[in-house]
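As a warm-up, study this chain.
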Amino acid sequence: MPADQRSKIYVGILNEEFGGMTPTGAIVKDAWTFGLIPETETCEGWDANRLQALYEKTTELWSQYGYRVANLPEEMRERHERIHQEAMERARALGWQPDALVDEEDN
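Now compare it with the structure written out below.
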């Protein structure tokens, strides 16, 4: 791994500009959904290697369910929905506008 990647430290899902509406934030939310880490763990201070390992674990678990929320067991599906709903509410309170991102991509 290049030196610049080894030195990157994650700010934590709650400290991201829009409260975790990023690819790294998705890894954390998925890890919460699968119970890999407690929902109190924001991954603040984690380096790229730890996040990569978490990504690999979440990807392995998603593959077992065909990468579809609908295929998750009911309890896990409800947890996923709650986690993502709360994340979107936090992000919108911080000014996140998902429709604006779509408009930017169209231009």
